[in-house]
Amino acid sequence: MKRPRVSVSAVIWLLLGAGYFLIPLFATFIFSLKSNQTGKCCTAANYSFVIHSGEFWHSLKISFLLAVETIVISLLIFVPTIYWVHLKLPRLRPVIAFLALIPFVVPPIVMVVGLLQVFRDTPDWFYAQPWGFLAGAYVILAFPYMFFSLDAGFRSIDVHTLTEASQSLGASWPTTLVKVILPNIRAAALAASFLTLAIVMGEFTIANLAAFHTFPIYIQLVNETQGFPAAALTLVSFGITWAAMLSLLVVGRQRGARGAMIAGAR
What we know:
The protein is mostly helical. About 80% of the residues lie in helices and about 0% in strands. It has a single domain (about 55-265), classed as MetI-like fold (Orthogonal Bundle), CATH 1.10.3720.10.
């Protein structure tokens, strides 16, 4: 049996892509090892400064909880909506796809000013708290990523056949959605969650203009005051974001495998 031939051009492009991604990270890592007093390498004091900073953990907690809240709200809104559109209202799909492009067209600085005016008269528990105002703004910001990812997942399965088979066995609409449709679009839901997590963890403009102290605001504050610790903080935040996305992937695969085992046993 012949082994598949590896294209030289593919290897070259792979190495170029890896270099484009890894070289800046390596340069940032070298920069983060320099002393903040002498400017010489190598010391881990900058990482110690980041890890032992109370503001670091406080702002990271806020951003991470906001990301989780945004993912949950977005999935609760868009999964049933897109399911119903594919099942009963396919003519509305182009309309929703057009609406999903609006967050790309409207700059965040314009969107946040409008949202601040619209929600001015709302209760303080919503307007003055990041769990209300920022979560609502981030759901809008994540709308296109959620829609197009989930839409691709729904288009890859036969929604009508799965729904008819489930209901012929006596399942209700919520049971059909949760136990039949959702496991089949798990990969799309995870992809949408990854994108939403990355957006929320890195969003600066809306949080800054709304005067909420999130993780990107803390990064900018350190960047304006201390150069070398800012590089260490950037790498730490990068690693935390990737670790969070990998954990979501592992959890999603474990639940998928468990569901497949249960289905096979039945």
